[in-house]
Specification:
This protein has 338 residues and is mostly helical. The protein has one domain: Mitochondrial carrier fold, CATH 1.50.40.10. It has twelve helices and no strands. It has helices at residues 31-38, 45-73, 87-98, 107-136, 143-172, 181-192, 201-226, 234-251, 253-264, 267-272, 282-293, 302-335. α5 packs across α6. The longest helix has 34 residues, at 302-335. The model is unreliable at 1-40 (pLDDT under 50). This is Mitoferrin-1.
């Protein structure tokens, strides 16, 4: 079976696998079109989880150096040696002064968290979306259902991902004392307790629930515009994913700045704000950011965040949709009689 069906612009086509009941007219009426017609209307749970895990690992791996820059640019009181004006300039300076591999420190723990987190994330989203669409909008696609499904998926995703976020952000900071992920985990556990790994969880949810709601609603809306038959179309997944990620990232930057402060417990910033001990709680984080940097403080690192999220979500959706399509076809081929 071929994964693609020839046509104008060599656009790929595939059977809808998201539960939407709209007809998929158009396309080529050849052997490839017969494959298109014979694919099942929904992918299995294992397919969603496998495709989601692959998407999460690739997304975070490819974009990790930019994520390292974003973390540093959100620092409220950076060391004079770690002050940056652009993403490219920051990467260049980090590599030149700290070594070629420095922007990748913490990547291993991020990959370990991203795989299972994204597996649960996409599997929950797809199943919740299908269920809620049946309740809210008997035919077609409900944006309310997509937003709620994205929010529910975020609860599972962040529960797995939050400890990995804490470790990787502490390793990304300038002059970090942590040289390995295991050493960082042990140090945080010993000095701050298990709760340190979830200190920013409520803030993470407060940020990610609106982020994912905007993200999924925008993605599904754009898919309706550029890919109305909802076939496997890599171009549409990249465009929709990238634009959805950029919009959601820009809108939720203030919450991300607060999350970074809670995760890193930036000593110089806390000392300037006359805070002894550990900072906890979203409200306290918001007050501290405003106290130190005023309103502009809430938008520190927004450029890096958008530059990071736009290709990240484009990669995530294109990889996810590819593996969902490929694995579903593969299972169908294995069941076909010869």
């Amino acid at each position: 079976m071929e994964l693609r069906c020839g046509g104008v612009g060599s656009q790929a086509v595939g059977r809808r696998m998201d539960g939407d009941s709209r007809d998929g007219g158009g396309g080529c009426k050849d052997a490839g079109s017969e494959d298109y017609e014979n694919l099942p209307t929904s992918a299995s749970l294992s397919t969603h989880m496998t495709a989601g895990a692959m998407a999460g690992i690739l997304e975070h791996s490819v974009m990790y150096p930019v994520d390292s820059v974003k973390t540093r640019m959100q620092s409220l009181n950076p060391d004079p040696k770690a002050q940056y004006t652009s993403v490219y300039g920051a990467l260049k300076k980090i590599v030149r002064t700290e070594g070629f591999w420095r922007p990748l420190r913490g990547l291993n723990v991020m990959m370990m968290g991203a795989g299972p987190a994204h597996a649960l994330y996409f599997a929950c989203y797809e199943n919740m979306k299908r269920t809620l669409n049946a309740v809210f909008h008997h035919q077609g696609n409900s944006h309310l259902a997509n937003g709620i499904a994205g929010s529910m998926a975020t609860l599972l995703h962040d529960a797995v991902m939050n400890p990995a976020e804490v470790v990787k952000q502490r390793m990304q900071m300038y002059d970090s004392p942590h040289r390995s992920a295991l050493r960082c985990v042990w140090t945080v556990w010993r000095t701050e307790g298990l709760g340190a790994f979830y200190r920013s969880y409520t803030t993470q949810l407060t940020m990610n629930i609106p982020f994912q709601s905007i993200h999924f609603i925008t993605y599904e809306f754009l898919q309706e515009q550029v890919n109305p038959h909802r076939g496997y179309n890599p171009q549409s997944h990249i465009i929709s994913g990238g634009l959805a990620g950029a919009l959601a990232a820009a809108a939720t930057t203030p919450l991300d700045v607060c999350k970074t402060l809670l995760n890193t417990q930036e000593n110089m910033a806390l000392n300037l704000a006359n805070i002894s001990g550990r900072l906890s709680g979203m409200a306290n984080a918001f007050r501290t950011v405003y106290q130190l940097n005023g309103l502009p403080g809430y938008f520190k690192g927004m450029q890096a965040r958008v530059i990071y999220q736009m290709p990240s979500t484009a990669i995530s959706w294109s990889v996810y949709e590819f593996f969902k399509y490929f694995l579903t076809k593969h299972k169908l081929e294995n069941r076909a009689p010869y």
